[in-house]
Amino acid sequence: MILQFSVFNWTGRKSPELNGGIGWINSKPLKISELRGKVVLIDFFEYTCVNCLRTLPYLKEWHKRYKDAGLVIIGVHTPEFDFSAEFENVKRAVEELGIEYPVVVDSKYEIWNAFKNQFWPRKFLVDKDGIIRYDHIGEGAYGTTEAKIQELLKQINSKVNFPEIIHYLRDEDKPGAVCYPRTPEMYAGYLRGYFTQKINPEVETFYKSDDEYREAQITLNGWFKVEAMRTVHLRDTESFSDYISFKFRGTEVNAVFNSDGRPYDVMVTLDDKPVPEDMKGSDIFYDSSGRSLVRVNSGRMYNLISGRRYGVYTLKLYTRSSSFSVYSFTFGSCVVKE
């Protein structure tokens, strides 16, 4: 996720301190100044961010490999959405994701601002003297990052032996994977979202679809309220009649949903049919009628579509719950050639 395009270059500069978090998980509060003699990897992330989640297997493996050699990984969780700013939600997500290294909850953006950051994810490597020696934005470059970790750790102990560098853990990161053009990230609020209809901000409105769906633009059908950062559904119905729809280009779709504490189901269709078995995301299940559904019970990212068939599709999300709220959509398009 990228907010702007200008980048402040930290390489060679003294690392800012990690002050201003509302709490720490898996650790007491840590300071860069107290970690001299260690190598510190600072990872800015957000638990609903698909790009952050794709890098997580590498961070967990580096923690396992190098924690005893002097590497300290610190996750800085800076929220994008209202619910992901709540400490208990972040704590639950850290536990569910299996993150064992320290995480500071930066809900006031104080650490984010100290680092002049604009990106999720972003990784900094701080050497034994507290100087930033590596700055990487986004996914990828895993082998390069691990090589830099080893280089900085050897400055602490030149005789240490390290395992072979891992260049990929996920199939999509393998050499030869083909990544086709994909729909950019979509937002479901009026501040950053695009809609095919005229939106009445902050007002519950009945919207009628004209069945002319467009890529990266949301079409509403039924009773919804479009807020600054999300779209909410404010009535309970017997059947799945109200829906959100759009066209997308790619192989994968993720949605950030939230619940007010009452679990609810969303019916998902692909080109007006249940999601095929070979394209269903990890959060999709089928009921006795063959409908493809996702159960929303907390605020997080849900994987709806995950397949090998690249194309342009129409996705519809049907709701019958007044607890329904959706914030954003992200897409994938990488195919691993056999």
What does this structure look like?
This protein is α+β, with helices and mostly antiparallel strands and 338 residues long. It folds into 2 domains: 23-169, Glutaredoxin, CATH 3.40.30; 179-335, Jelly Rolls (Sandwich), CATH 2.60.120. It is built from 4 helices and 19 strands. The protein has helices at 50-66, 87-97, 110-114, 142-154; strands at 23-25, 39-45, 71-77, 103-105, 122-126, 132-137, 178-179, 186-187, 205-207, 219-226, 231-233, 242-258, 264-270, 273-274, 284-286, 292-296, 300-319, 325-332, 334-335. Strands 8, 9, 10, 11, 12, 13, 14, 15, 16, 17 and 18 form an 11-stranded antiparallel sheet that branches. It is globular and about 65 Å long. The model has no long low-confidence stretch (mean pLDDT 95).
Write the H/E string, N to C.
Answer: EEHEHEHEEHEEEEEEEEEEEEE
Note the overall shape: globular
How many structurally independent domains?
Answer: 2
Summed over residues and divided by their number, the pLDDT gives a mean of 95
Biggest sheet, open or closed, and with what strands and sense? 11 strands, antiparallel
Percent of residues in beta strands? 25-35%
CATH class of the largest domain: Mainly Beta
Q: What's the multimeric state?
A: single chain
